[in-house]
Amino acid sequence: MQCRIGCGACCIAPSISSAIPFHSFGKPAAVRCLHLDNENKCSIFLQSCRPLVCSGFKATEDACGSTKEEAMAILSEWEILTCITQAVPKMNDRN
Ligand code: SF4
Ligand code: SF4
């Protein structure tokens, strides 16, 4: 699918662990990237400092749904599921 212009959900809902200008240690989930402009477009879209994780993310119906609100809900749920998946092996390491 084509990215919905003016959506920006993938620049808010997920955490990003890569360094981004003004987000030296990446950004937490549910925090708006400082490069998302007032029209919900990436202000560093064509710049080399844009993280690979951003340029690698492609719009799909599974991830983006049919509205920004759906995308926020889906990507937030994926964020939680990813956190749980990463946390369980760490908890098992304690045994
Ligand atoms: S969530 Fe999907 S539709 Fe929305 S800006 Fe990101 S890629 Fe585009
Ligand atoms: S750098 Fe651009 S594409 Fe990446 S999260 Fe920020 S606004 Fe979105």
Protein described:
By secondary structure, the protein is mostly helical. The protein has one domain. The chain is built from three helices and no strands. The longest helix has 26 residues. It binds iron/sulfur cluster (2 copies). The site of one iron/sulfur cluster (SF4) has 10 residues, from helix 2.
The sequence of SSEs as H and E is: HHH
The assigned structural class equals mainly alpha
Number of structural units classed as domains: 1
Residues in β-strands, percent? under 5%
Give start-end ranges of low-pLDDT stretches.
none
Please give the radius of gyration in angstroms. 14 Å
Bound molecules: iron/sulfur cluster
Number of alpha- plus pi-helical segments: 3
Helical coverage, percent range: 25-40%
Q: What is the residue-averaged pLDDT?
A: 92
Q: State the distance separating the first and last CA atoms.
A: 45 Å
Question: What's the number of extended β-strand segments?
Answer: 0
Q: In this structure, how is the largest beta sheet organized? A: none
What general form does the structure show?
globular
